[in-house]
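ESCALATION

Customer reports they have been waiting on this structure for their group meeting. Please prioritize. Original submission:
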Amino acid sequence: MRQEELQELQSKISDASAFIRPLRTEIGRIVAGQEYLVDRVLLSLIANGHLLLEGVPGLAKTLLVKTVAQAMDGAFSRIQFTPDLLPSDVVGTTIYNQNDHTFSVKKGPVFANLVLADEINRAPSKVQSALLECMQERQATISGETIPMPSPFLVLATQNPIEQEGTYPLPEAQVDRFMFKLKVDYPTREAERSVIDRMAHPETNLHALAVAKLSDIENAREWVDKVYMDEKILEYILDIVIATRPKHHAELSSRQNGVKLGELAELVQFGASPRAGIALALAAKGAAFLEGRAYVIPQDVKALAPDVLRHRLILSYEAEAEGLDADSIIERILNELRTP
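Update from on-call: job pushed to the front of the queue and completed.
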């Protein structure tokens, strides 16, 4: 891309991303100390992805998603997943009308712009399968009738890392549909003090003002697609994804002379799928857009790689025996590969 074209694109993307700053400010007025999570939710929206969130209870997950929906004047719903939940409780069902002896479709809570799927791993496989269709196909099938999901459509699913009794492990195919898996820890002392100041009142009912529109997200997606990514950064993304696959290390070593990934062969059982590379490229473009940049830089890729890859790696028993997790494997890969 020529310098003149890049400057023109920069000007247009700066204008298209102007709504991000007031949106962040308004969300921050309600939700304190969760800037990382706010950015990932916005990034998922403009990159048309979904999030899987792992964190202890009480980290303002419901408040965050509800606030984002209010700030964009969108529809919000929360689904509490339980072992006795049915697919119809999520997507909806048909109702018989006695007056005219016909059936009509009653949509379920999943038909919203932002959906919080709370403790998703507590639901049986049939419910998770119904949600998977909504996430991947952007549609739901109710009694043979296919109904498209609203746009934009974002699912933020949560898992409780503390209590695992009565849970159903998510199928790998479903986990792979999430663009990000986020690990959220407790807020800092200063942030928690701010939370207490805002929320420790008998009748706290904070409501965000609508400072953006759903059409802003649709417009942003068009410009995210136009963000410039250099060929070297695309090759870097491919190197990162291929490095998670032990069977392809020989090919990678010949391309990046001197790279040492042999020790990972016994630590990773299955690496990331091609969907991981697509997600990482899209997320990197989205991150550049959020910052009002018309081009992707290597730091965008490095910052997003753990969130995109950690749920797509299946580690071996050797890795578990050494106390290693996916994040430590990804860190080794990023440290070993040459950055363009």
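Sent to customer with the following note: The chain has two domains: 49-200, 224-336.
Escalation resolved.
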